[in-house]
Amino acid sequence: MSFTSLEFFVFLPVVFALYWLVPHKYRWAVILVSSYYFYMSWSAKYAILIFATTFISWLCGILVEKYPAKKTRRFLLAATCVVCFGILFVFKYFNWFFACLDTLFSVVGLPSHPITLKLLLPVGISFYTFQTMSYVIDVCRGDVKAERHFGVYAAFITFFPQLVAGPIERSGNLLPQIKAEHTFSFDKAIYGAKLILWGYFKKMVVADFAAIYVDKIYGNLPAYTGMGCVMAMVLFTMQIYCDFSGYSDIAIGVAKMFDFDLMTNFKSPYFAPSIRDFWSRWHISLSTWFRDYVYIPLGGNRCSKARRAFNMMTTMLVSGLWHGASFTFVVWGGIHGAAQLVEDGLKKPLSRIRRTKIGRVLLTLLCFGFCNIAWVFFRAETFGDAFYVLSHCLDGISAPMRYLSGAWADMGGMNLLLFLLFSGIVAMYDLFNYHGDIIEKIGQKNKILSWVMYTALGLLVLFFSQKGVPAEFVYFQF
Amino acid sequence: MKKFLGILLAYAALVVGITLAVNALYVKVSGYSAEEAKFQSVPDNIQVCNLGSSHGVENYLYKEESDCISFNFALSSQYLSYDYRILQHFQEKLAEDCVVFVNVSYFSLFGTAEEEQDEFVSKNMRYYSFLPPEQIKAFDRDMSVKAWLSRYLPATTAGGDLPKVFLEALLGRGDEAAVVTADDIDLAAETAHTVQNHIVHNRRNQDGQLLLNEEELQALYDILALCEEKGWKAVLVTTPLLQEHNEEIARVDPGFKKSFYGLLEQVLADTGAEYRDYSSDERFGYDHSLFLDDDHLNPRGAEIFTDLLVEEFVRGGNGRPEPSAHKTTE
Questions:
Q1: What is the pTM of this model?
Q2: A219 CB near a chain B CB, below 8 Å?
């Protein structure tokens, strides 16, 4: 079951009704059972892994508070890390790690015996592992108190709106909300419903539409040059953003209907005027996780320039690796890290440019262009594919009209126009969201305008979504 | 809570209402009619029928005044494997002595699996409305929703065609003269395009060699076996083509027909089935007025052609029609 499957449209109303009908003291149980049901509809046997991760991290929290000595805390933290990250390693990185080792052995002339495990990557494993580890680290640091109630803690870890693809919640935010008494809030529920609609628009209309052409082009790269490669790049840029932010919108919107406030995960990242700013707006829950648990413990920026650069690159490389067991992801992370180092080095001239409006616009466009290029490494399965796309983008540009007509030929005129229109709607939404909250603004301004807008949005989802075409959320593979 | 649920219901009603209105307008303006809708009213005791792709859809036209119960099971771009599934599913509808025209076009037995073709997913949807899940290739429950929508609310699955249809209606482009004969189109371009699709595209491996589609060949055998088991008269038919089409095939791949007929002869030898090859029939091949394009008859041509087959195999007429013998070499 995912947010775009039919079962979810039955599941959600049932859980919604149960949650609000049941007395407050049992609501954690409704969340827990429904969340496990949600997860097990994908794969029942892998629910064992979540349970194991949940139990071990909960137990660690209890023991850390019971035995607060520094050495014991460190031991417990290390043991939990080994187990939880170990599970993640086995399912996500084992085969890749031993394939790399095998390659290394071959290069140096040593005998190699490649080991592979035939394991399916459990959906959401990267997300819930990081969520449990953030809890354990926070308890070890004394930032939060350990949760004694296993059921409440398990509900926090498995809260179904954010279970499989985030936002990666901090215990300080979500855990108290699991325990708190909730009253149905009309304003919050309506806000949530509107956000869910935007999420479905981004995912089912823009992302799934782009995915068709991205998969087609990447599936047969030699057949495409020039504008075809540019389209692959730009379409994926929109696909990954609309897919993931669409999921987050739905997750946050669903949570609001239950009177929960999840953290904002995206805040108009493609309007960022710098890569550093981009990372404060893209997958915020993950980037702040890496900031708080990797970058700052390494020393952050309170150290020498060289050390700061090392901390930045390490954090970005690990962030890339989090996304997948492939060097293309690592390089993607590295590219972003390198870009931030360059920005650090050019701090003064860049901040002068940023003071002017035209300067900010130019920097925003530059940043967006950079992201397009970096995403190629994220999407391509091999470096060969990535370099092919990048090196063939300008093929045929000496005949500009013919070059541009490539987009028309590949997608069809009407589809291209529709895609530009829908992307334009997303861009406007993000532009207005950059400094404020467009949903609130529209809701306050004019009720009729609000009704017209959301009716139009719903109709666009109904008429232009890629119904029935298998289109799993991109971040499910992480 | 009541206010929230009330607003949700009002919103849903508004969206559904507008959707139904837009859909009705779309169906009216586009003249949309699902080609698979005919399977909702398959008659009983069918005495003559045909299977096939668009060659089956366009080239067979049974006279309405005929006392013979007939049905056209063909669908555009349909593969033999689906011909077999349809025949299996509707077997109870066929009379004991039914005559089944099994269309075998030049492209029928070659190429990669249907599931690997472009448009497979969208094409496969039409079977959801009349075949059971076990008969549908790569059955997907989520796709059955889209198939339902495509059948009853086609505007919601039209995608880019939706604004296109309304724009064309507004600009009055829908009133272009209908194609009546092959002389109304750019025949040379159309022929080149058709032959590329039928003989080259997705029919060859990376070395350019013709790929035998084992699944489709097996489907042909299965169809003939089912006909024999049920006592139906199976007749393999290659429908008429314009001479330009044959010439284009000879130009693109001189050895192609030898491969096709060699394979077909093996099938005929294995099964003892009858075969009628109208692909180079001079009564059709040089008469543009009987064709819509290089490989599809127009209604007049289809009526004449179908009558020939019905006369021979159903009415048991005296004057046996004489299609030209197929040539294994060009």
A1: 0.82
A2: no
